[in-house]
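Lecture 7 notes. Example A: sequence first, then its structure tokens.
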Amino acid sequence: MDPEQTAAALRQISRGLAALADAISPPSGPAALSDEDRYRAIMNDWGRRGLTRPEAGELFRRHGFSPQAAGGWARGGWMEVRDDGLRHLTERSHQWLAEQEAPDEQHDWQRR
């Protein structure tokens, strides 16, 4: 076997072992969180500031989303592009986040 073929075979084995290690290791980072936890995390990180398109894309990536997910957020009314060209979370997003972070209300029957 020539050295080029040997090197190619070793690279292929290495990729296979890396894929196997990824498959059996517990998830970490954004992948370890539920979708709802990731939504809360990105919204908390975003806050009320406006982001440029590249900044928003990076924020989505950092939280385990595709940058293209911003389009779905815009269509769903969770994010908007304002006249200044910056991307902002909508009031709907801020309200949802506040509801998620509020302590659960107890009903009268639960206090007994």
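Example B, a different protein, same format:
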Amino acid sequence: MNAAAILETARTVGITTLIAISILCFLVVSIRNLVSTIQLLLAARVFATRIRPAARSYDLWTRYADLALPVSVIAPCFNEELSINDSVRALLALEYPDHEVIVVNDGSSDGTLAALIDGFDMRPIEREQIATLQQTRVRGIYGSARYANLILIDKENGRKADAVNAGLGFAAAPLVCVIDADSIIEPDGLLRAAEPFMADDGRLLAVGGAIRIANGSVVEGGHVRDIRLPRSWLPRFQILEYLRAFLTARIANAELGMLMLISGAFGMFRREMLVNIGGYRHDTVGEDLEVVIRLHRKMREEKKPYRITFVPEIVCWTEAPASWRGLRNQRARWQQGAMETITRHARMILNPRYGRIGMVAFPLIVIEDVLGPPCELFGYLLIPLLYFMGIESGTVVVAFFSITVLFGTALSLGTLALEEVQLRRMPSARDLALIGLAAVIENLGYRQANLAFRIYGAWRFFKKDTRWASAGRAGFARQ
């Protein structure tokens, strides 16, 4: 074979490979959009057919105060000297008949410990550790002279999962609520989360709630006093993302018995189950995803009936990254955590032993978190390139950008419509219109940047880089 023939063969193989990759990109993006459409329609059906929960906190209290199970609220914190006391006061003020607050200081290097001791008149106490799940040393346990239901655990630094495990070891209530100390739970959030457990026969393992972005809102004393949109477009894009995730995906997945993630910012669990599986894992940056999948795995392997559900009326406010660097770190960490979890539980994928979790839910995670980001990003680059090379037709280019940009925008607008009809959390029609505009503008760079950040997270996974990349926080008062 002469050189010309070799070059022609190489060219043919190269073109064939590029066409195959472009077809894969097209298929993966199409599957993701099909899944999102099904989730939106199913979420709309759930909202239309469900029994609406009580709208007012007073009605909730009247119905359930006498039935509510005791709850231990575990709030790990690290270097939050300026805001920790307001956060703890807000947790103590939650509308719940019987809850204790366990604050875990995870080896803060600032004045967090001193602020807590001074602010709540904390004194050393003796308290039995029911289970030892943490890997670092507990340096001291404190109780408040003013609040009988406030406990402070001071420990060496071990990151969030280790801090939560320390709190689990000292929690006395049958239910535990795991939150971020710098998140803000609405006053009735704890009661709404505990409500599904009250009429349960023991099968319910965990309840998740909606996470909303507080950037731009007025926050005073650990409470969101006035809901407002952030001035910057970057947090606005994230508001739209959170609506898609919590208003459609989580509701639909919970309805199908396939809820695979309860956000680390807020989740309520049966304490016994978390202890039985050994608590949160220390060797992953995606501990919130991993712990829920481990619950699924344990119950499926033991062939026991169980439920993990989601309540959209539970609202926990958090601060979203306000800088591109912070967003990159957050999304890379999420991607890395997802890939760590997929690798650890790979035997569940397409394994009939795990039912719909193994046959449907887990493969969808693989499509979303492993195949999705590179396929969509490469599709943006490869399909136009093949068109300019004369290999692909203009119809293919238009079709690809239609299913990514136009179809994606339509799904976002559908989610906004569902939000307005069912929950009405947008402060005004103007704010609703601005988020609708964000559904269009996000396709002009933000969406593509997010894909690149997730590929960066995959690179960190393959490098086995386990350093914690902070998303950075400006503080609610600065938004």
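Note on Example B: The two ends are 68 Å apart (CA to CA). The longest strand covers residues 307-318.
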